[in-house]
Amino acid sequence: MTLELDTPAPEAPDCADDGTWLACIECDETFAPFSAVRYTCDECDGLLEVRYDDPPTFDDFGAGASTEGPDRGVWRYREALPFELGVTLPEGDTPLHEVPRLEESVGVETLRIKHEGMNPTGSFKDRGMTVGVRVAEELGVGALACASTGNTSAALAAYGGRGGMETLVLLPEGKVAAGKIAQASLHGARILEVDGNFDACLDIVQELAARGEAYLLNSLNPFRLEGQKTIGFEILEAFEADYGTYPDRIVLPVGNAGNTSAIYKAFRELVQSGAMDPAEVPKITGVQAAGAAPMVEAIENGADEVRRWEEVETRATAIRIGNPVNAPKALPGIRNTGGTAVAVEDEAITEAQRDLAEEGVGVEPASAASVAGLRKLRDQGVVDDDEQVVCLTTGHLLKDPDAAYEAGRKPEPVANDVEAIVELLQD
Q: Rounded to 5 degrees, what are φ and ψ at 422?
């Protein structure tokens, strides 16, 4: 199974609703998008993808914007989404930072940091939730649920709360940063801590969703990835505005591989509409922590499937995942764009986190994996020195304040006296 980058725009089947439908990436079965709650294919249980009979062009973006809805961020791309507007806080329109000292030390022509930690709840997950909760409204469901390493739970609770829906979160006990649990708690989610890892939590949530107990809003849900694909649109537009071209490569952390899949989908849609030449598509490059790297293993072994890792461990808690559910979408995204995947040690992640902070970009550990991975690929000669690169950072520093404290400089005790302070500073 291969998702070709340069396939023509699809024709809408009879089940399409206003030119939108769901298609199985394995057997090509199609479904009406909002006729029933559906996460995977009825025929083969393959992953579903949202498709449109009129893929977007850059000229479509921002079309029809009015004072009643946002004209920036996720919903600026409404022509590439299933609805005109959803429950919004608002989200998207995140900065593309310049990092000159880091750029020089890594040794590439251009390095920019797309900081998704600047979303309302502090991570990229808000992009998917604004669309996912809108779909839940359309389907008439009142309760939402997710398994989470932390960021999904915060976004689900905030957007579900805004939409007036009950929210249920399953977390691996003792494995989620306190800052993320605090967000979900304050936004009103019911939080269950499971004696197991993230993948075990997701297994349970999928079963609950299959029983109709709640609407699943993990990235297995194809509508959530529609919001996340706007990251790709924003990167292309902002980079082109600054440099007159698109980046050669986009490097991003990989957990469940939702962003990898979503950004690839954004590029495919632009190619299908004729808005982008296939040769201009950036290389999608995934980075995982060495202790949780099943996608990297598959890429290195040339495998078509990812082997589930039952035991995973890394201080980058947001990507501590051993069974990336979106691997069937993400592996072609990496391969068809000429990208690759690499695993990095926790020490390299922490070093990259410090270096980003010195440039004023504060991120949680998982976010810094992208920069750590870029460094490793430069050292290996995989990334050339003339490349223009965007690294995606996915969550804010305050998502995991304990990790930030451990990585940073420690406070120094001093007497309540000016002379004592001056003496200390001279040491």
A: -60, -45
Alpha-helical segments (H) within 249-381: 258-273, 294-301, 327-336, 346-358, 365-379
Contacts of residue 230, Cβ cutoff 8 Å, sequence gap at least 6: 73, 74, 76, 77, 80, 92, 127, 266
- φ/ψ bin of 186: left (φ > 0), alpha (ψ from -120 to 50), beta (otherwise): alpha
Alpha carbon distance 252, 264 (integer Å): 12
3-state secondary structure at position 253: strand
CA separation for the pair 224, 92 (Å, rounded) = 14
- State the Cα–Cα distance between residues 238 and 120, nearest whole angstrom: 20
Structure-token pair, residue 292: 């949780």
Separation between Cα atoms, residue 157 and residue 189, nearest integer Å: 5
Q: pLDDT, tens digit, for every residue of 372-422?
A: 999 999 999 999 999 999 999 999 999 999 999 999 999 999 999 999 999
Assessment of whether the complete model's pTM goes beyond 0.90: yes
Asked whether the beta carbons of 152 and 119 are under 8 A apart, the reply is no
State both tokens at 176. 């989620």
Farthest CA pair distance, the chain: 81
> Strand pairing of 143-147 and 215-216?
parallel
**How many Å apart are CA 189 and CA 153, to the nearest integer?**
8
Cis peptide before 90 (omega within 30 of 0): yes
d(CA 156, CA 128): 9
- Distance between start and end Cα atoms, the chain: 63
